[in-house]
Amino acid sequence: MRTHTCGELTAEQIGQTVTLAGWVHRRRDHGGVIFIDLRDRYGITQITCNPQVDGNTVHTVAEKLRNEWVIQVVGEVVARPADMVNDHVVTGMIEVHAHKVTVLNTSKTPPFDIGDDKAEEANENIRLRYRYIDLRRTKLQNMLAEKDRFIRAMRAFFHARGFHEVQTPILANSSPEGARDWLVPSRLYHGKFYALPQAPQQFKQLLMVGGMDKYFQIAPCFRDEDSRADRHFGEFYQLDFEMSFVEQEDILHLLQELWVTLTKDFSTKEILTEDFPRMTWHEAMQRYGTDKPDLRFGLEIADVSALVRGCGFSVFASSVESGGVVHALCVPEGAALSRKNIDDLTDIAKEKGAKGLAYIVYKNDGTLQSPIVKFLGDACAQKILQDVGAVPGDIVFFGADTWMTVCAALGAVRSACGDLLGLKDPDKAAWMFVVDFPMYGMSETEEGRIDFSHNPFSMPKGGMNALKTQEPLEIVAHQFDLVLNGYEISSGAIRNHDPAIMYEAFRIAGYKKEEVDQKFGHMVEAFKYGAPPHGGAAPGIDRAFMVLTNCASIRDIYAFPKDGQGRDVMLGAPSAVTPTQLKELGITPVE
Description:
Elements: E1 17-30, E2 33-40, E3 43-49, H1 51-54, H2 56-64, E4 70-79, E5 94-105, H3 116-119, H4 124-129, H5 131-134, H6 138-159, E6 164-165, E7 182-185, E8 193-196, H7 201-209, E9 214-223, E10 234-244, H8 248-266, E11 270-271, E12 278-280, H9 281-288, E13 301-303, H10 305-308, H11 314-321, E14 325-331, H12 339-351, E15 358-362, E16 368-369, H13 373-376, H14 378-387, E17 395-401, H15 403-420, E18 428-429, E19 431-435, E20 440-442, E21 450-452, H16 463-469, E22 479-484, E23 487-494, H17 499-508, H18 513-527, E24 534-537, H19 541-548, H20 579-584
Parallel strand pairs: 3-5, 6-9, 11-18, 12-19
Antiparallel strand pairs: 1-2, 1-4, 2-3, 4-5, 7-8, 9-10, 10-24, 13-14, 14-17, 15-16, 15-17, 19-22, 20-21, 22-23, 23-24
């Protein structure tokens, strides 16, 4: 079918007869001589169809060609005239004089221009509807090739360190791992369901019990969560790995080595420090208002509760007196923010549960502009400004509520200010670890109920003694996250491998022994047969690749992504199924 590809022809092939095949990228008729830009995955080669040289047969076929027709060309490689050399194309030094052109397939007019610049202007759902056309773009083909190299580099890294790649089941059981399961009804056992794995969590721990010692895989994960810019709907891939006889430090060291290597090889970003900073979950929340802080810029949050205790501003005073806090965020040169900017930031704070967003503008002339200064008093206001390091030209935002609400609200405001003021340098990579996550938190679905805040299989720091002697919300887990530029890239932990500790950990979260046995009896039983201490992590491949390559949306790095509403508009999924299929599964059709 072909002897060469369009991207590999060079001056070395001049004088040779070659056979190329690909798509008509562009056709130009220059007064009898027809030029065709022939495109395949490897590049573009210019084809010349000259009736004076190659005869009317070739020219007649060339006249009929249209964009995206699939053709085969046999011709001689020749050097282009010096004034026609195209330095922007790898094959710009040569062209192919066609001796024969064969149409392999025709094409309808594409619904959008396939040129990379023009295609970006097309509606995303149109591009996803015709994704097989969208994928012909050089940008997407280069992305998929680079992602392939990215994953191969991960495999090579772990193979070089004695890990074995093991595939774990896709049909598994439902377990409480932080998100809604995708359920698969059983045809053989009506009324019972498999669950697609949110992660290979249980399997990789059982591999450690089985003596595998070092395991990894490029694992598909399935979670019924809404789409976000950094979260693909329904499914994603993670680099899952686990090791026996390790401590947390061993895992953090491995992660750091891996991501320093990948950042240097697959990104132009400057790593701010190759010895990744660490802070506890509580410290990250207190200083930055989030457990995934972006360390490319400062804007630390300060606790001013003590300064406003008993002040004249009732919102602040009552918050502190009722056990809440008042935190302040000083934004350098923030006085330049417009009234609309401040209103938008207030809405962001409210989305995180705040009742509002108080502020003081420290004007360049030294005066204070704020509706709350008259209640605080000048002396208290000046003391606060001094405490947070404010200077003329700054703006200080305040949050007053429970500790968690204030942290979340000001954390979101801080991130938004980073965007508004251009503080998030795309050429920087600020890696960090957040450690010591709380073992438990308050349930988001059942008021007053304690639930696992992260992975239920993490080992509590202090083991059984911590579970027995500490208040649940004060118990810290051997749980950590890896963060890049404000994105969570990986979660990891030292795992619970002791049946007694597991029963007690689940008891505190409201699970009876019978429930634990029903859902995790296989793990409890396995741990009774000499389970080694073990731990691991699971970096999100898709999100990491998105951040390292500066993609605006995670959908940009999938071959066939779902749209923002979780639909596959190309295949028409989700779709209805037949009554016969439902009957086989023992499911009654919805009327």
